[in-house]
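Budget justification note: compute hours in this period were largely spent on complex prediction jobs such as the one shown. Inputs:
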Amino acid sequence: MHTLIVHAHPGTRSFNATLTATARQTLEAGGHTVEISDLYADGFDPVEGPHHYPDRADEHRFAPLTEQRHASELGQLPGDVAREIDRLERADLVILQFPLWWHAQPAILKGWFDRVFVYGGLYTGSRRYDAGHFRGRRAMLSVTTGGPRRSFLPYGRGGPIERLLWPINYSLYYMGFDVLAPHLAYGVQGAGIAYREAQDFERHLAHVRHAWAERLRHIDDDRPIPFTGWDDWDDGVLAANHPQRWAS
Amino acid sequence: MHTLIVHAHPGTRSFNATLTATARQTLEAGGHTVEISDLYADGFDPVEGPHHYPDRADEHRFAPLTEQRHASELGQLPGDVAREIDRLERADLVILQFPLWWHAQPAILKGWFDRVFVYGGLYTGSRRYDAGHFRGRRAMLSVTTGGPRRSFLPYGRGGPIERLLWPINYSLYYMGFDVLAPHLAYGVQGAGIAYREAQDFERHLAHVRHAWAERLRHIDDDRPIPFTGWDDWDDGVLAANHPQRWAS
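Corresponding output:
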């Protein structure tokens, strides 16, 4: 198994950095190969816009999907986007490692979705969801949160974690991935904020690292989150007699 | 009433640009004042990271909240962040105008949340939600989607729009805003993709512009989305006997 870890945290000594290092060590120890896309270290530009498209399909009006399709057809995708796509094509499993900022992924990772999942090249109106480009591959989120676990329970103050991560997981499914349940590390904060002693920080970090390694050792057994797909929909809406309408 | 429109689209002739211009015209015609924060035009940097903090609280380990609090205490916030906060402080109503990209706001606007809503300065553990800094002010999303309306209905293929926008709306509420229901313009796509004739594009644009102006003329009558607040929670979780647990 070959794994791509897309890593999105600015701190080189952060919990997130440790989790990415733990994933690499654990997977390599299991005989797998690992590649890391470190968005901050690479200086990835998350802003989709005209500056990435010197040869425009429409000089008059900039529409991202129009330009993505055009650049893709001409083989003129931006270099960093082409590199990320190559990395994705090699991977059997994609892990997105990030801290939850404002109930979502950091901007640098949001822009990775905006720019790398190229319209025309990697998806079209008919080539998405369970007919998506990456079908047969697996993807999962590994997320740290500042708030404690109870805040993210169904009636928690922070909002149910499934609801917060749904737009991201659904985007991965949109591209055809089998999406595994996310791995969560709750109550992770800056060393100067939540931990009275340096050893409290280190103890929490050791606990989080252990839990993540355990999860990864058994990742082959994980079953993906079930989503509805093309056979379930009637003109874009779940068919009225579909059993899931009554189960949810 | 003074309104701040935070505008996040790279195309100067886009639907989004027209909607922002429509909002300005409509509100000014109603005797209100309007300010626009055009994130693309301003070259806003959405990436939170060490490069914004020359004078660090912790040189050893970069944690965004630690550095935000430190810079805020020293009065050394980055210039663009200080400018955005000044704009927010002047506004009675904040409108976020953006296209739905990958089930969320574009990266440039996601980074506006990551960087501008400064820990320490604008919120702390006790100064958030209905005790948040911007309580008494109103905020709302104005969103264009590529998919048609039926895709975003409760059983739609794109996922219920309320669920997609929830992380963003909840972030506004977290800062204390009274959040109005979003304004949606569905089925908006690049001129080269969805519209057979230029006049189809213009006709759709006229329809969308009209609906948005109508909404804004009556914006004073809008009631905010109800959220639970401090009095409803018991140690971070909605109290077991709270009526909303049984109503949802």
